[in-house]
Design brief:
elongated; 2 domains; mainly alpha
Length: 171
């Protein structure tokens, strides 16, 4: 199958910063085909992510640590949290912004965030089954259990045995 024309042209101009910047402003995912140096160019990457949050995938490891760039992506398309550098995994505001879009991203959260009640409540509000990735302490928390049972009774099995015996949960 032939390559899309815009990819071919980007590859031909991969080292031309002006061309790359203009192009990722129109189609952020074309960052993938820019020269490696532009994957670490903050202005280029931020422009690409503003156009298409999925462009975060092609940012350098260095720029996946840049909170502004990461927030721009994750707050608009939560699942891109999977590309976030470990140094930002304890940033509660960033995680909550992503959870607004997708509770599924709890899977990629740090152990500390998986033990944070606000985070867990936000995650299960969108995707109740994700509670299975919450800390044991959170899977034994009454508020979490009640919200979970109100959203999806099938998730009962993911609660800790002690909480499963609770009268309020059993109702």
């Amino acid at each position: 199958m032939p390559e899309a024309p815009e990819i071919t042209v980007m590859k031909e101009n991969a080292n031309n910063r002006d061309y790359v910047l203009k192009t990722v402003n129109e189609n952020g995912k074309l960052l993938e085909f820019a020269a490696d140096e532009f994957h670490d160019d903050r202005e280029v990457v931020l422009t690409a992510v503003k156009n298409n949050p999925e462009a975060l995938e092609f940012a350098s490891l260095n720029l996946k640590k840049d909170r502004e760039i990461v927030y721009e992506s994750v707050s608009r398309l939560g699942w891109t949290y999977c590309y976030v550098d470990e140094s930002l995994k304890n940033d509660k505001e960033l995680l909550l912004a992503g959870l607004e879009k997708s509770g599924q991203i709890l899977y990629f959260a740090s152990p500390e965030m998986r033990d944070d009640k606000d985070v867990i409540l936000k995650a299960i509000a969108d995707k109740p089954i994700i509670v299975k990735y919450a800390s044991k302490r959170m899977r034994n928390d009454l508020d979490v259990g009640i919200q979970l049972m109100n959203k999806n009774k099938k998730c009962f099995k993911f609660l800790e045995p002690e909480l499963q015996k609770n009268e309020q949960i059993q109702k």
